[in-house]
Amino acid sequence: MRDTHEGFAVVRNPWARVVSRYTYHFKSRGHLNEDAAPSRKGLEAFLETRHEFMDRPFFWHRAIHNWYPQIDYVLDENRKLAATCLRSEHLGQDLTSYLGAHDIRSVNKSTKAGFDWKELYTPKTLQLIADIYAQDIEFFGFDFDTPAQKNILQNMPKDQS
User: Fold this and answer.
1) Tens-place pLDDT, residues 30-55
2) Domain that holds residue 118
3) pLDDT, position 136
4) Is 46 among the domain residues?
5) Is residue 82 in a domain?
6) What is the mean pLDDT of residues 128-146?
7) N or C: which end of the chain has fewer CB within 10 A?
8) Single pTM value for the model
9) Distance in angstroms (rounded) separating the CA atoms of residues 23 and 64
10) Total domain count for the chain?
11) What is the pLDDT of residues 89-108, one digit of tens each?
């Protein structure tokens, strides 16, 4: 199928991705009320759950407990990039460029977090994510507060995008 169809994927900064999963977990457990909010301590506890779920086979589809690196989804069996990668942080712009469409806007109606996700990290948890997702960080050129910089639509040769 890959011989006849071109695939694309959306990649996201690993630190932002983990906080998104943590807040989704937090909301899905009914914790968000007037007196509760995601916290550094809560994020650290969430990160410890990785030991239970990290190496489970076929857990790639789990919204909350998926600890697989993103490159597992975009590299083929020869470890070559098999999809055009768009950035979650600039999805409207990247989709517009990739599809050749105009004025694609986000329709995500979820509530805003109400906090800066970067503030949930401590030096310890920041390094933990760097260690867990070292392959993604290297391959896509992520930094703590930046979208992918490498192996994405914006810097692929025109004959590959």
Assistant:
1) 555 545 678 899 899 889 888 777 66
2) 8-155
3) 97
4) yes
5) yes
6) 96
7) N
8) 0.81
9) 9
10) 1
11) 998 889 888 988 776 666 65
